[in-house]
Specification:
Order of helices and strands: EHEEEEEEEEEEE
CATH superfamily: YhcH/YjgK/YiaL
Strand order of the largest sheet: 1-10-5-12-3-2
Largest sheet: 6 strands, antiparallel
Helix content: under 10%
CATH class: Mainly Beta
Shape: globular
Oligomer: single chain
Distance between the termini: 17 Å
Number of strands: 12
CATH architecture: Sandwich
Structural class: mainly beta
Number of domains: 1
CATH topology: Jelly Rolls
Length: about 150
């Protein structure tokens, strides 16, 4: 897990070919006016999805992990809490290989508050519980860049 200012994201060049492409994209494409939808950066290797949604209480949140992708989580507007645990601390309930989506259950080790200007990079060893409300539920806009890191 890496938690940083988007303004400092260039410090992470050199960690991987596809992460470098994601960093270059973020460095040259401000998120301020981004609309909900899918953005192709490098095919299935690097792409961004932007969502508008209502945050929720933790009891209803989905706890997930991925084997082949890192996620770069950023709120464009609003605030969200993301719970993160090392994959070794949770139990895998289900894995959809085609979607690279692992459903997990277990304790959250860390709660990270996402606000505009911050980026949270979750790696394959980081299970993450998303959409958590800060206090009461609220509407946010969130961008997630999916970065292929292999198996």
């Amino acid at each position: 897990m890496i938690y940083t200012e988007i303004a400092n994201i260039e410090h992470y060049y050199g960690l991987g070919k596809y992460l470098d492409k994601a960093v270059a994209y973020l460095s040259s494409h401000p998120l301020d006016d981004v609309k909900a939808g899918h953005y192709d950066i490098d095919g299935n290797m690097v792409y961004m999805n932007v969502f508008d949604y209502e945050t929720i209480p933790e009891e209803g949140a989905f706890f997930e992990a991925h084997k082949k992708y890192a996620d770069i989580h950023m709120t464009v507007t609003g605030e969200e809490i993301v719970g993160v645990s090392d994959l070794s601390k949770v139990t895998v309930k289900n894995f959809d290989e085609e979607k690279d989506l692992m459903e997990v259950e277990g304790p959250v080790e860390h709660y990270i508050k996402l606000i505009p200007g911050k980026a949270l990079i979750t790696l394959p060893e980081d299970a993450h519980k998303v959409k958590l409300a800060v206090g009461s539920p609220s509407t946010i806009k969130k961008a997630v860049i999916k970065v292929y890191v292999g198996e």
